[in-house]
Task: structure prediction
Amino acid sequence: MLGLVGAWLVAAGAAVAAIAPAPPAIQLEADGGAISLNERSRWWLDGTAQAPVESVEAAGESLPWALRLPGQQYSIDGKAWWLQFDVQARQPGRWFLELTSSGLDRAQLFYRDARGQWVAREAGDTRRVSDWPLPGRVPTFELAEEPGRVVRYWLRVEHSRVDFAVPITLYPQGQLIAAREIEQFMLGAYFGLAVLLTLVSAGNAIAFRDRSFATYSVYVAALALGQAAYLGVGAQHLWVGALNWNEVSTFLLPGLSSAAGLWFVRTVTEPARFSRALDLMVWALIAALLSAVALDTWMASRPTFALQLALTSVALVLVVVLIAIVWWHGHDPHIRLIALGFLPVVVMAVFPVMRGLNLIPNSVLTRYGITIGAMIEMPILFYAISLRGSRRREAEVRAAALTSSDALTGLANTRVLLQRLDAAIARARSLKHPCALLGVRLANHEAIEHQFGAEALDKALVVAASHLRRAITDIDVAARVGESDFAVLLEGPTTPSTALSRAQHIVASGLRQATPLPAGLVLRFHVAIAMLPDPVLGTGESLQSLVEAAAAIPADARKAIKPLNF
Result:
């Protein structure tokens, strides 16, 4: 009977040149580290996927076992892949077998206990994570804790649509726990950052009606959900128990994130400015990606998944092309920062795409490449589009501020100054403390225009405004009240010595050469000061008197500061 079973199993298996003997038993030391099963185990492919473990054990050496080598990939659609290895623990201690990849359809571990009874454990997408022997992102099984006895294990794996090339490793309990703590910390940081930027970007999109923030929030959310499905976080924490959705989401959500990423790049680069055909090409590729995702979700086959990955590869190339075109032909000062932000994901996405196409084996970069790239990308892109948004809103902000500020210098206008002056004088009277008003005149404005031109005069007025801003505190106000006249309100409590000190600072700052101005051009300020409230001067009269007093100071006067009432 056993001979018939063995013959049937050999017929069901893949033919090999020679049957590999069973490797020596793996020795587990109490203080040992992780042990890879490469070259320490042998595999066999059941073409029917029907052989029970009892039959595999009974067939023994009649099966075409082959030594498992590093980097091997196995196409096991509709089949069952078996791995056999022996383990002997030298001292008591808990050891675990981990298949370091999420998304496996089914993984089963079999062995006989000390009484000869079969022990079976199962994990994978066919079961809820909470029902796994050791719940987590990836299938993990505890080995028998029987020191001194050689235990033979059989691992059975079912997996479709992508070649099976998962690292299989034995871990001692302490090292497994430490590795998972680091893993949870890193993934928690990524998903926490993704949620934060999604919410903030959505808020900015609503508050500022900014399309870049809107598409960015969709892109970050889609990428995070795609990574949650791909890394097994979704099955572990988000859609617990939804087995059908978990199976679909592993391939669906990463595809949608690719389309969302291309949409975001189109919004940022605006290819229609350069070529209508290029813009239509982007829309066509987005539509093709979504269609491929829908087709793959419906048919769930290798060819449809390969089509989705091929279109994703084209999308990555198109992203690089769009950024390069804007860099070369555009005038966006932030495009280099945007390109720097996209670079990590574009580079890292190559590894999982190549893995999906079975061009490279499973590795850290194929599993976590996009996650690492996204952690670098997200804050850079958020900062870049924030800068772009601020620049685009600057004109709107300046237009809205024209009712209360001077268009050239950005200082408050006369109307705002008089309102603030009325309020300051009223507080000064009620609180019994004085405030001060300074009239400031750019005395050499005519000479500047005559010698350097009107453009240089405009720059000089802007620089003058910057000097006045640096001379005041947050509670003070500087205003432009004439073509070359300014006023500074020191709201107080202010003393005459403080007012004089501010006036001296303004005069001295103007005499220093400013970088934006032509060489040899300095600003000569004349300043008149009044302490308020004054029994004679009212609000309007105070301002007018100071402007006239500053204008009356002779151009060649040795003293550029004139107190009026102290």
User: Anything to note?
Assistant: Residues 167 and 363 are 8 Å apart (CA to CA).
